[in-house]
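Researcher: Can you fold this with guanosine-5'-diphosphate in place?
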Amino acid sequence: MILALAGGVGGSKLARGLAACLAPSDLTVVVNTGDDFRHLGLWVSPDLDTVVYALAGLANRETGWGLAGETWHFMEALGRLGGETWFRLGDRDLATHVERTRRLDAGATLSEVTAALCAAFGVAHRVVPMSDQPVATVVHTDEGPLPFQHYFVRRRCVPAVRAVEHAGAHSARPSPAFAAALDDPRLRAIVVAPSNPLLSIGPILAVGGVRDAIAGARVPVVAVSPIVGGEAVKGPAAKILRELGHAASAATIATLYAGVADGLVVDERDRALCRTVEAAGLRVCVADTLMTDAQREAGLAQVVLAFAAELAEARGGRASA
Ligand code: GDP
């Protein structure tokens, strides 16, 4: 059994690759909910939806979020009324948020709602929220504190980031399926997807007890760098790292994950950084990490699984020596 930690765009691509290689009972994808927010009266869980749509084969590959073939009549109509249109909700996507909100208001947990949505979309692999308690990522910027979506979508990541806060994370608990996966005797590896380390993986690690549980896991923890050749493949990861005083580099990813991950997969373009990654205490694996199609997603997933198996073997050797 493999436990994967994921955000949206980068997370969903590796999740899709892992799902292509593993049986449904052998994969649990834990998804960041620090981006979740109430908007237009609806509960929106952007990263969960991105991963579920990806595994359902319904994702929009161009944007990396939302549904393929989406229409926007609702947004157009809302704009005509003078409503809030800065956060785009497609017509079909809207149904997901309406149904999630209805079920949550009726007393279901986010885990229960997510399981129901997965079943409805025909997603057989387990996709679960990091927690059933609300955790809100707040981005502290030179313009003051901004709720995550206001920073990310409304202000298009323009304000300079000073710090990232995960409000509520400390008192939140891992969701039941997340906790069960961490304790599962069948667990073979924990995979950290090439998601934003501060905005997507940071909130998951901040949930009460999670960082310690993963740092102390008896199985290898393998991360994939979202920084390739000194830039993010998509999104503000490189910009934020620089604003926080780090170099935008796979070596910085190694530093951020030191003590949590045992190994880091870096891109071929970053081969020269291997020594620096090892100096941070992580084993390193070099691969083509650009997931531009389904074949490359599955190919990278296989590399990650083989690397994890190699690290497990090395641990076993040490344990019996
Ligand atoms: P978000 O929540 O939608 O921002 O998505 P994530 O945090 O899951 O993913 C964003 C990160 O994924 C960015 O830092 C990207 O650089 C990284 N990313 C996206 N696609 C790829 C890819 O094909 N390969 C690698 N290595 N990183 C990727």
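Model: Folded with guanosine-5'-diphosphate in place. The chain has one domain: 2-314.
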